[in-house]
Here is the input.
Amino acid sequence: MSRDARWKALLELLVERGRLDVEEAAAELEVSSATIRRDFDQLAEQQMLVRTRGGAVVHGVSYELPLRYKTARHPSEKQRIAKAVADLVAPGEAVGLTGGTTTTEVARALAVRSDLASGPPALTVVTNALNIANELAVRPQFKIVVTGGVARPQSYELIGPLADGVLGQITVDVAVLGVVAFDAVHGAAAHDEAEAAINRLLCERAERVIVAADSSKLGRRAFARICGAGAVDTLVTDSGAGAEEVRRFEEAGLTVLTV
Here is the structure.
């Protein structure tokens, strides 16, 4: 097992359990205790966990895994959702992409569409996510606009008044939102209020809004509200979404696509 794969596994175990002992982790990952101690020390240096005597605990009460360690959660669902979202985008449109694992997959799905292989430009992509900008910047057929702002390490998103300033000067045809929670009554939400504020502004600058969310996000609430369900035109989710949940969104006026 590579170091990155081991770190990812350790962090996911830590989130699930809240605390890990060295010996316990070594047994689960089938590596030596010395290797786990070294991993814990290095992850603690990056402030991704808190080292304890004989183990580690999660870092703070609002602990979130950085984006690169969350990409393995529901991967097939996210990829199916992403392709369906990408198919809703027309050549030549201006597309706003928020940060997140699902929207990152949307960016990748757009990048491989054959009808977007050339153009003056084929798409204009506006994003506050550094990782999305990095992946798409190498594609000359896409015009990439990055909002500016202060980087949020957990999600690589740019937040704050500098990002507000750019978004206040533009409009987009479609905004694609990645969310941590989406409920027909309480709307779309994020964990962080500054992140939610940027996403809300992007919605306001869009002709239409798509929420890309796997079924585990539906019917949930989170701390920071992005927008009400009525501000969203389309929800793209996976086939794990319950019929009653889908019905509630449709009654709120959304088009729901399950893949």
